[in-house]
Amino acid sequence: MKSLYLKELLLLIGIGIGLWWWQNENSLETKADTSQLQQQVSESFKSIKENLTKPPTNDISRQQNIVSIEQAQRENLAKTQVIGEGKVIKILPDDNQGSRHQRFILQVPSGTILIVHNLELSSRLPDLQNGDTVSFAGEYIKNKHGGFVHWTHHDPSSHHEAGWLIYRGQKYQ
Question: Which of 4, 55, 120, 128 is at a distance of 20 to 30 A from 22, taking alpha carbons?
Answer without folding.
Answer: 4
